[in-house]
């Protein structure tokens, strides 16, 4: 198995200073113009390193952008005659049904990506459904064939999304943020290319693109180390409580977004601008090692942006259409990245099935969004404009209350988001590492570790080598040494062995299995 590695240049001491964000000109010259040239050189070196890292990422890892572009072929260009709002509701309803079905049958179907039956069914559903939609829209126009195609394609996409969730659940948060943001940017670029294509070309890509994304997720999983791949269930998936807090947040914002806008709006400059702004912010934040960017940044931006976007579409507020579209897509894009980060990080840390938690979350998300659309479409027919405006205000207040309540009870990478582990369940071989991750979360909170430091501590606890940690977190050697030094100082330890002993203390696994070998396997 091949682990994707970043450019070796950013590991060397020569480029480390520029990549770590430390002052490159400090104390190295007397003349101000020399300092300026050194800072400029360091900045250029940092950008070159960032571009090399992006260039080294396999295109297969960005397949989420492919299926996002595929979605746009049907619903965002007005190229397919007869497709309307009700059709989109059918499509998303099918995603919800399949997501729930796979979530509650997870112990029989995971790992989903390598399940031959699931892969064939997904491919047939995606391609067959797309072909039926094309056939009915351009030839038959019966309506029934189109609905069957929408149901098939939606169900196939539900399965494909959960395969990608398995991929993201096998990565540390920084890689999830980088790959997901880049994938969204790729999807955005393809959408803009599609805007200049006629209907026959869009019909062709509507049939081909889902197969490309399916092949990409399977290729991506095969590139990961064996230890990081999802495993089969040993017993019922009752080994952990469901992380309901992020789902509550996502549901509140998704309902508001659904209520505030219908899904059939044509793509415009504002949509692309909003998406690019937040994805570029995330990519630069991850690769530049900026102190202002960490796991919390996406969390802290996602919900305020969503609330602002919702207020902009309210009749009593209103806004320029480009500004409104930019805010809406920026907010929802950041929201979806936040959700992917939280759930994939729960899978990565605690070993909880990505199919289970993402299947339930996706099912709830799409049903809630349909409810928002339905209310948005029917309310103006039943109520006066003043009542509609009042409901907008009420929904905005609910969003704010939910965000504030959850934000002050769960925040940071160490947050458990309602997850609790208990005996008698989980994934084969993963329960001990799950308890270890829970212990690391507790220690990080107790000792005030920064999100970056906690990420390093999680990898140290997993027995990752320094070179592996550098590659996983896109940090230079000197930066990693500084993080480890800060961790040791805050925890009052002086070596890895002392660190391991500290993590073993008061571990739940001592009580459950009477020893520490399951918590920190020696390797």
From TrEMBL:
Swiss-Prot/TrEMBL keywords: DNA-binding, Membrane, Transcription, Transcription regulation, Transmembrane, Transmembrane helix
Domain HTH luxR-type, chain residue ranges per copy: 442-507
Biased composition regions of type Gly residues, renumbered to the chain: 15-28
Family annotation (SUPFAM superfamilies): C-terminal effector domain of the bipartite response regulators (SSF46894)
Annotated stretches, region: Disordered: 1-38, 503-523
PROSITE patterns: HTH_LUXR_2
First and last residue of the signal peptide: none
Segments crossing the lipid bilayer: 49-70, 82-106, 118-141, 147-165, 201-221, 242-262, 268-287, 299-318, 330-351, 389-408
Name of this chain's protein: HTH luxR-type domain-containing protein
The organism's taxonomic lineage, starting at the top: Bacteria, Bacillati, Actinomycetota, Coriobacteriia, Eggerthellales
